[in-house]
């Protein structure tokens, strides 16, 4: 069984438990992004198994009638084997979602995979417009150029600050500088897009900025937060008429999920502790 500290952040180990969590969140007006835990597979069979699991999950979501979608990790569906295998599985999952009227997000992992991930997103979105979305990390110094490249791609963009501890040669490492980059990236998206903007942040300042920019420019947007983090705020935003999505991981690999998050950046441990304490 998942211990209490983990169950706050993980929607169980099985698909039924994940769907039950999504159902409960929907009752509060919160949509859910389900992510099967798993990453960094170097065996093609493991990548295939999780790709198949996502295909089945999309069917299950469609049958359930829930307000939910899925999010995949590149290294989970083949990136650590080859970029071609990743894109093959990614495309297959999005094709199924497109058939079902569903949606697929792709997370962003470490900076070594950024080019291959964005190449796949751009190609797949062209074939399945508005059935796919891509996460972009503002802490990377390259992100302004990436957003300029992707701004007209027919897919959603989830803007996050970035959780990976990248070297200062390619990433901003000072919190204030990351915040500045995130604000600049938000302004760019709201200036250049009228739809498909996802604000992936728990920072009240950034969410308020997004709301102001949306009101000024009329763009549609959504806010995305993690399961177990500021859930009262998620419901408050829904009450204000803002579309809110909760990222909810599930599956048997919950222990490695927490280990990797803490190992990547020491700030992640503090963040989790504050969430548990409700601060």
UniProtKB/TrEMBL annotation:
EC nos: 1.5.5.2
An example molecular function term from Gene Ontology annotations: nucleotide binding
Superkingdom of the organism of origin: Archaea
Keywords of this entry: FAD, Flavoprotein, Nucleotide-binding, Oxidoreductase, Proline metabolism
Broad EC category: oxidoreductase
Domain Proline dehydrogenase residues, every copy: 19-273
UniProt KW RNA-binding keyword: no
UniProt catalytic activity: L-proline + a quinone = (S)-1-pyrroline-5-carboxylate + a quinol + H(+)
Pfam short name (any one): Pro_dh
InterPro entries named among the record's database cross-references: FAD-linked_oxidoreductase-like, PRODH_bac_arc, Proline_DH_dom, Proline_oxidase
Gene Ontology biological-process annotations: L-proline catabolic process to L-glutamate
Pathway: Amino-acid degradation; L-proline degradation into L-glutamate; L-glutamate from L-proline: step 1/2
Cofactor: FAD
Protein name: proline dehydrogenase
Organism: Halorubrum tropicale
